[in-house]
Amino acid sequence: MKLLLSKAARDFLETLRPKQFRQVVTTIFRLLSEPYPHDSKQLKGYPYHRVDIGGEYRAVYEVEGEGDALQVLLVGKRNDDEVYRLLNRVNHPGLIPLRGRTEAGACGRSLPKGREPGAPSVDQP
């Protein structure tokens, strides 16, 4: 299975400290072998799933095709519903499948730390 990371997910990974970075990336890599773990849930009103990571973070993803690719759309903090606000912001027809995604082979850490995306709110499913 191929791993695809959106620009928003990549940008968030760039802001993490090494320990949290490892937790998030380890969970994402586990999704490649088991895309629907017991603690994942489908988001109401969206074709995406979410998984909690280390009690502090949440990832929103989808499995494309017949399990050909895992696309991680968003990663963010759980406690402030940031992921759902971002999902509402980027969930426009054509935007997610066509723009802002990158094949992941290696995770670089080139963006400046402390970059926080903002977005309008959305109700948590």
Question: What's a concise summary of this model?
Answer:
The protein is α+β, with helices and mostly antiparallel strands.
Structural class: alpha+beta
Based on the coordinates given, report the CATH architecture.
2-Layer Sandwich
* Average pLDDT over all residues: 75
- The SSE order reads EHHEEEEHHE
- Find the CATH topology: YaeB-like fold
Major sheet size, sense and barrel closure: 6 strands, mixed
Question: What's the total number of strands?
Answer: 6
User: What is the 3D form?
Assistant: globular
- Major β-sheet strand ordering: 2-3-4-5-1-6
Low-confidence stretches: 92-125
- Proportion of β residues? 25-35%
Radius of gyration: 13 Å
Give the class-level CATH name: Alpha Beta
Distance between the termini: 28 Å
Our count of domains comes out at 1
Summarize the topology.
Elements lengths: L1 E5 H9 L2 H16 L7 E2 L6 E5 L3 E8 L4 E9 L4 H9 L4 H4 L2 E3 L22
Your description of this structure?
- With 125 residues, this protein is an alpha+beta fold.
- It has one domain (2-101): YaeB-like fold (2-Layer Sandwich).
- The chain has helices at residues 7-15, 18-33, 82-90, 95-98; strands at residues 2-6, 41-42, 49-53, 57-64, 69-77, 101-103.
- A hairpin with a 6-residue loop joins strand 2 (41-42) and strand 3.
